[in-house]
């Protein structure tokens, strides 16, 4: 169950990162509210997952899901560049996440 909660927490990190971008520096109300709600929910789910998962594992997986997810949203939704170096970096992050999961 902790892994499911951690995955949901990571997904919400993607939501708040995207909505923060859309808030234009917290000057737009709806994206700002989405950011705040998603942040609180993400932190809450992370905290519950950390009751049973090791700190290093939980935090690494949570930030990795958020980082790679935000990268993919940037590519697909915001039209950010998909350079070979950026793609390699994302692959390396995912590889690290897989290794972290396998070691737990």
From TrEMBL:
The chain crosses the membrane at residues 33-50, 57-78, 84-102. It is found in: Cell membrane. Its main location: membrane. Keywords: Cell membrane, Membrane, Transmembrane, Transmembrane helix, Transport. It comes from Corticimicrobacter populi. The lineage of its organism: Bacteria, Pseudomonadati, Pseudomonadota, Betaproteobacteria, Burkholderiales. GO terms for cellular component: plasma membrane. This is Guanidinium exporter. PANTHER family: GUANIDINIUM EXPORTER, SMR FAMILY PROTON-DEPENDENT DRUG EFFLUX TRANSPORTER SUGE. One of its GO terms (biological process) is xenobiotic detoxification by transmembrane export across the plasma membrane. It is a multi-pass membrane protein. Belongs to the drug/metabolite transporter (DMT) superfamily. Small multidrug resistance (SMR) (TC 2.A.7.1) family. Gdx/SugE subfamily. InterPro entries: EmrE-like, Small_drug/metabolite_transptr, Small_multidrug_res. One of its GO terms (molecular function) is transmembrane transporter activity.
